[in-house]
Amino acid sequence: MEKRTASCYCGQLSVEVQGEPQGVGVCHCLACQRRTGSVFAALAGFLAPYKVTGIATEFVRTGDQGAKFRFRFCSVCGSTVFHTEEGNESKWVAVAVGAFADPSFPPPQDSVYDCRRHPWVQLPQGVVVYEKDPT
Fold first, then answer.
1. Is 34 left (phi over 0), alpha (psi -120 to 50) or beta?
2. How many domains does the chain have?
């Protein structure tokens, strides 16, 4: 089974995942825009097990549906690397696509919070678009 490693800019924090992503998506919500400093977040979900190396600083955010998400980022360089949903940490992990530093990484399959997408952002053909979070 293929392994992939995503890491922060300085390399202090990393997460190793196995297999293909269960899904790849982009989120245009204002919380993700502020969290990433970009106009959207690109995330890939992987099933457990996953292995974390290094020390993460954590931030917990409550989503629109009430779920609590624990974001992990590097305390040295500040890069966001991954997050989990409280209560589901042993099931899956969401990894920032950019942390893989792999231009051949699979493209997004869906896009959420399109109502907040900057009008100049063009999505690849075939991406399923949701006005808000479909869950």
1. alpha
2. 1
pTM: 0.93
Does some domain include residue 77?
yes
Rg (CA), the chain: 14
Amino acid at the residue 87: G
State the residue for tokens 């993460």: 56
Q: What is the CATH number of the domain that holds 55?
A: 2.170.150.70
Residue 64 located in a structural domain:
yes
pLDDT mean values, one per 10 residues, the chain (135 residues): 95 97 96 94 97 97 88 96 94 97 96 96 95 85
15: nearest Cα among 68, 70, 58, 55: 55
Q: Domain range for residue 93?
A: 3-119
Asked if 41 contacts 96 with a C-beta cutoff of 8 angstroms, the reply is yes
Query: Which ranges constitute the DSSP H helices of 23-117?
Result: 30-36
